[in-house]
Amino acid sequence: MEDADLMFxxxxxxxxxxxxxxxxxxxxxxxxxxSDDDKEIIINILQNAxxxxxxxxxxxxxxxxxxxxxxxKKFSHYNGRAIRIHIFDVMISxxxxxxxxxxxxxxxxxxxxxxxxxxxxxxTPGYRGSVVLRPTEYSRVGRCLIDPRKIVRHSWAGSKxxxxxxxxxxxxxxQQLKVLxxxxxxxxxxAHVCAETALWSLFRxxxxxxxxxxxxxxxxxALLNKDKSRGRTTPSQGLxxxxxxxxxxxxxxxxxxxxPKYADDLSAVAAESDPWHTIKPIExxxxxxxxxxxxxxxxxxxxxxxxxxxxxxxxxAFGYICxxxxxxxxxxxxxxxxDFVHGFVINDDNISPYxxxxxxxxxxxxxxxxxNIENIDVFVAPLPDKVFLYAYQAENIxxxxxxxxxxxxxxxxxxxxxxxxxxxxxxxxxEFRRGEGDPMSHALISLSLPHFLWVTEFIPETCWQDRHNGxxxxxxxxxxxxxxxxxxxxxxWIRTLSKVWLNAKRIYGKESIQSFQTASPMLRxxxxxxxxxx
Length: 534
What we know:
Layout: E1 9-13, H1 36-46, E2 51-58, H2 61-69, E3 82-88, H3 101-114, E4 127-133, E5 141-146, E6 160-163, E7 166-172, E8 175-181, H4 194-209, H5 218-223, H6 241-251, E9 254-258, H7 260-271, H8 287-301, E10 307-310, E11 313-322, E12 334-336, E13 341-347, E14 355-358, E15 378-383, H9 391-405, E16 417-425, H10 426-433, H11 439-445, E17 452-460, E18 471-473, E19 475-480, E20 491-495, E21 499-503, H12 504-508, E22 513-517, E23 523-524, E24 531-532
Parallel strand pairs: 12-16
Antiparallel strand pairs: 1-2, 2-3, 3-4, 4-5, 6-11, 6-24, 7-8, 9-15, 10-11, 10-15, 11-13, 13-14, 16-17, 17-19, 18-23, 19-20, 20-21, 21-22
């Protein structure tokens, strides 16, 4: 049987295609209905690919959910099936899929090695991912799972891009392929618009990465909105950020709602005291914007992707671009790690996946994305059920701990210090820290810990450029994320270069805080929440 005779699968060689050369007639069913925006998305994710496999009459669970709940009720006729396009960076054929699984994988690996393709953890060699085309009116780009490390992106000198990614698996002719990705799709402008689509991306990521979150589909997400004060749920009227926070609760998440007023209130509280370790306001800037960016970075760095409000739009932020030099003029000894952030990696349902919202200060002349960091007016961050402390509460508790257990002279050797805070699971933390070679690290990760931790790292500015490869953390404070904001001594341990305080009461139920004099080495800055994208 020849490739062209197969009913549902068909290969196309696109190795010579460019922006004007790709033959969209290959996508036979929908070619006349693809918008220019759809075509631009497809072209962007196909750049430098070698071949594609068209899977016709594909039953897509996300589109099928919307079709059953919405499109099947319309008078107009809609097809209940979609098309899925699989993208390969090597040249293969249908016959390769009939090889034994080991031989199939080895062939993909050998073909990748022949053309010096880099292999990436979590993604099958030679495979880039897949995109679904659904038969909807407004936009046809459905679930898109593409490895971001295989797409050409804009880069900034001295910066690296990190993202929260999950491993997805597809089966083609009984062969299983893997791709590390953050899910993306376009809104259909009827059953789901930007807010519901951003929520779908977030929930689909969480359900794939963590087994205790359920998988949920686009139409069902729309039904999670119980607030009918603005009209019926479908066709979608869009969601306010308050409604998004409510949808979080229906899904099983808590939410922190962060807008300029909230940011100003937090800044006013922080200004009441002025110890050496607090973060001072930026020079000549807006405190609310600064606070929005700071706390947004905390949640993105925690792999808890927030829904970000832009003018008349909503996107999901799941990664960040971080450089070696501060972009902010700030007084004081301590600066937040967000001062080094060039931008946030987002999925926007109107354009191709893996875009960025960047600072105006580093915006290139040819930058086309319409929004930047300064346009952010609100975000809603998800919190797992077992994270009781909001980011600002964890920060305030950490301030109290620093004042109680350290003194300014402990840090005289470091003219400037970068303060980085994030939330992580104890499992992720232990897996990362077990690579440390000192006995104290081994002792601490052997402890019974709560499910989630709030961690604050102090990094000398002179060490910041080595954070990816070397040990740079001179102090670490670890909080129990299930603590209440009024709990006494909610920390688990405090670790400096010369001393460790262990909260035996919280860990063992004993009425004491144990301290140890130790010549501890610097620690590596934690990287367990994200994957390096570029």
